[in-house]
Design goal:
This protein has 167 residues and is mainly α. Helices cover 65% and strands 0% of the residues. It has 7 helices and no strands. Helix 1 packs antiparallel against helix 2 and helix 5 crosses helix 7. The longest helix has 23 residues. The chain is globular, with a radius of gyration of 16 Å. 26% of the residues are buried.
Amino acid sequence: MNQQETFNSWIKDYRALLFKVVRAYTLNNDDANDLFQEMAIQAWKSIPNFRGEAAVSTWLYRIALNTAIRWSKKEKKHSYGKQDIDKSAHLLEYKPDHQDERLDWLYYQIAQMNEIDKSLALLLLDGYSYKEMAEMVGISESNVGVKIYRIKNHLVERSKTYENHGV
């Protein structure tokens, strides 16, 4: 498979994973589109370095999280030459599948967290083990456990003040 085919396949198969990270790091559609574009560019650039030692989902998760962290720290929009991935523009638009107020609430809460906690919350939602999370985020497995415990408690406390749809 060439780079274009690999990219199209990755974006098609893992766009929901990327959008999950985008949603946690942005609060409006313009920023979401910008961040997703940046993630797509980084994924495109990473294809030649992918050796298959990790699952594609893990590889893209790391790219997405690192890109989102970098992007949120800079808080400014990026523009790179995108002619090579313009052929895939239809795959690069942020379009939420459906609106669920509980998910909106959850992603809003996650967006308010610090960078490490955001990453851990997203990885937890996707079912990664503490060991995998520790490797991806670069902290110890026991620290992951402590942080997850605190994140859950924080969300439970915040949910007590939210009155809609059984959150």
